[in-house]
Amino acid sequence: xxxxxxxVGSTPLIVVExxxxxxxxxxxxxxxxxxxxxxRKLIRINLREPEVPHGHIGLATGxxxxxxxxxxxxx
Length: 75
Known about the structure:
Largest sheet: 3 strands, parallel
Order of helices and strands: HEHEEH
Shape: globular
């Protein structure tokens, strides 16, 4: 994974996180750290805990519904 991050460098990147809650926040923290770059964005899909750092996107919905909504916007 570290090799991949080095290869990505400053390329724009979107991190899509599905269903990671606050009870065990390891995944949430990791995704926030990865997205903490001017050319990166975090999209957090979580029905009960969609809060994100300033400038990122939180969707208060289930994973499938959120992914479908993203897909519809990309078409």
